[in-house]
């Protein structure tokens, strides 16, 4: 509303009247007071020059990856990797020697040794199946670059098999798409990194800065066995902040509002599961209390849902810089939004912006903590009162909030209900209200992960990641992009976590980015996962150029 009024206030008609009455210099006034469609002079989102590797390799540059000769060779290699079903199952044990289902990763390793012989000279195995390649640089005072991916894929449900257009581990290529489990998540980046490295080594590449490739094998089940051990090994060798930059899977390059946006994920929301149990004395259901503990835990859930987390645009959340980049560089962004974003410093515009973001289903949780009561357990017999009822609530924590904020909220609601019903409250082993004869609430968090440290969005490393992207996704050099599409780089936030959660102490500069055209990644994690082949070739070119831009 406020926006509309403001635009009305600034209508050319009104300006014209003002001009005639007050100054009589219509033309002059028009140049002073912009109308709503003129761009504002802001510079929230500076872009950089495309960074072209200035290293003349003996026989080819990145355009080599777009030739049909290379494409054919790469396709065969990719298909071989998809055909090895490196599935992570939820019930795999922590000890990798205790389950034969891990052995399929050995098959993948043998395949890599055969397919990428030069790169394989540098491999070590961490916790049996983690792959760690170290190509030592000539200058040990430079911090290494780490490229990450994961070898595992999510399972294919037996019942979904006949919904697949092509069998998920057949790696069918239809001339445009490669089909199969892992084609988008993320054997594409796994292979692209290996192909880029192998190509460099074929050209007697010898870096000044150490290059490390680090591939876990259980990302889809939280990464403790793979990335957890790899991150520690790297930390043992190089120490706190001993790594220059890490690239891992993440956002891609998306067509938005008439532009192509290279989204580099610099932030991740946190994660916490909270369990609340209510223990009461049981008894026979012929003599029940007015409220059983199922009823009271239900009241607890109702309290949570009646008080959802409000949207909060906190300092450092990349959602605002992302929209500022769109406002400055995307030609087809809605004018009202453009103005709201560029004039955000004004209080009312911040409110408008939050309202706007909250109205977009896919985006609204990027500025608020989510809560979902996902599991409830209580009672075992219909003629006996339940003695214990437990609810488990999952949260993805907003940038600028913390696990402690969420725990505090649970303690408040539990305390309110405990006072009402005369129960005690014990939270994380600490007694907040002494347990009574009637019962006690117990709060605990089986899984917590704070929001990730923010990666830099300016400075030398950012410019290298951004500059490499602007070169590789440049319409003039990338044969897959229409010439008239502008390309720009913007920071982004992820609602989930990648394997990089195990690497936070290794560097502040973590970018979660898959150098693919996002519209080419289809249906990952579900049936008919596939990837348009041009995306894979572009990814390979990106890793090749990035390695050159950062290690020489
Ligand atoms: C790169 O090296 C090749 C072979 O040594 C040479 O023919 C070519 O002109 C060089 N290109 C540039 C841009 O320097
Ligand atoms: C690549 O494969 C396609 C399809 O099999 C074939 O038509 C084309 O000639 C191949 N290109 C090269 C350079 O081998
Ligand atoms: C939390 O609840 C879930 C089920 O809702 C259960 O699997 C888990 O063991 C509980 N954890 C703790 C620490 O109570
Ligand atoms: Zn993944």
UniProtKB/TrEMBL annotation:
The keyword Transmembrane helix applies. Keywords: Carboxypeptidase, Hydrolase, Membrane, Metal-binding, Protease, Transmembrane, Transmembrane helix, Zinc. CDD domains: M20_yscS. The active site is at 152, 219 (proton acceptor). Residues 266-421 form the Peptidase M20 dimerisation domain. The chain crosses the membrane at residues 12-33. SUPFAM superfamilies: Bacterial exopeptidase dimerisation domain, Zn-dependent exopeptidases. Zn(2+) 2 binds at residues 150, 185, 248. GO terms for cellular component: fungal-type vacuole lumen. One of its GO terms (biological process) is proteolysis involved in protein catabolic process. Zn(2+) 1 binds at residues 185, 220, 525. PANTHER family: N-FATTY-ACYL-AMINO ACID SYNTHASE/HYDROLASE PM20D1, N-FATTY-ACYL-AMINO ACID SYNTHASE_HYDROLASE PM20D1. Belongs to the peptidase M20A family. This is Gly-Xaa carboxypeptidase. The lineage of its organism: Eukaryota, Fungi, Dikarya, Ascomycota, Saccharomycotina.
């Amino acid at each position: 509303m406020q926006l509309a009024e403001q635009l009305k206030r600034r209508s050319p008609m009104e300006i014209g009247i003002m001009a005639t009455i007050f100054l009589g210099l219509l033309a002059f006034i028009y140049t002073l007071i912009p109308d709503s469609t003129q761009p504002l002079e802001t510079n929230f989102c500076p872009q950089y020059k495309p960074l072209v590797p200035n290293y003349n390799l003996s026989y080819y540059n990145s355009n080599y990856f777009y030739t049909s000769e290379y494409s054919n060779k790469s396709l065969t290699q990719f298909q071989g990797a998809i055909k090895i079903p490196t599935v992570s199952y939820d019930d795999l044990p922590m000890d990798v020697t205790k389950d034969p289902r891990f052995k399929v990763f050995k098959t993948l390793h043998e395949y890599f040794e055969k397919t990428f012989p030069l790169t394989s000279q540098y491999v070590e195995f961490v916790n049996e199946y983690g792959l760690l390649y170290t190509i030592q640089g000539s200058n040990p005072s430079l911090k290494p670059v780490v490229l990450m991916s994961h070898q595992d894929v999510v399972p294919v449900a037996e019942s979904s098999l006949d919904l697949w257009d092509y069998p998920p581990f057949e790696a069918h290529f239809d001339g445009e798409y490669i089909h199969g489990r892992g084609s988008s998540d993320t054997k594409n980046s796994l292979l692209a990194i290996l192909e880029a490295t192998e190509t460099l080594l074929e050209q007697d590449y010898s870096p000044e800065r150490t290059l490390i490739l680090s591939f876990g094998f259980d990302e889809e089940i939280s990464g403790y066995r793979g990335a957890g051990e790899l991150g520690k090994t790297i930390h043992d060798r190089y120490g706190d902040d001993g790594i220059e930059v890490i690239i891992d899977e993440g956002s891609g390059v998306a067509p938005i509002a008439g532009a192509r946006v290279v989204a580099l994920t610099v932030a991740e929301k946190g994660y916490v599961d909270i369990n609340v149990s209510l223990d009461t004395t049981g008894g026979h259901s012929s003599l029940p209390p007015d409220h059983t503990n199922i009823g009271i835990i239900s009241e607890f859930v109702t309290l949570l849902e009646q008080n959802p987390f409000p949207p909060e645009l906190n300092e450092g959340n990349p959602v605002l810089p992302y929209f500022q980049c769109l406002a400055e560089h995307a030609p087809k962004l809605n004018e009202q939004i453009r103005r709201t974003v560029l004039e955000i410093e004004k209080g009312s515009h911040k409110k408008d912006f939050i309202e706007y973001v909250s109205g977009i289903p896919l985006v609204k949780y990027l500025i608020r903590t989510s809560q979902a009561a996902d599991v409830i357990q209580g009672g075992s017999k219909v003629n006996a009162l339940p003695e214990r009822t437990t609810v488990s609530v999952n949260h993805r924590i907003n940038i600028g909030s913390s696990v402690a904020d969420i725990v505090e909220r649970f303690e408040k609601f539990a305390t309110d209900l405990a006072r009402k019903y005369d129960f005690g409250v014990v939270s994380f082993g600490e007694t907040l209200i002494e347990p009574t004869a009637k019962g006690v609430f117990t709060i605990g968090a089986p899984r917590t992960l704070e929001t990730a440290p923010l990666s830099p969005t300016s400075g030398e490393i950012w410019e290298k990641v951004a500059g490499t992207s602007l070169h590789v996704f440049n319409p003039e050099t990338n044969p897959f992009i229409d010439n008239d599409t502008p390309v720009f780089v913007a920071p982004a936030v992820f609602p989930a976590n990648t394997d990089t959660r195990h690497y936070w102490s290794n560097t502040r500069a973590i970018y979660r980015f898959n150098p693919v055209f996002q519209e080419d990644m289809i249906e990952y994690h579900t049936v008919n996962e596939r990837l348009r082949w041009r995306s894979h070739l572009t990814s390979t070119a990106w890793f090749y150029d990035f390695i050159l831009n950062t290690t020489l």
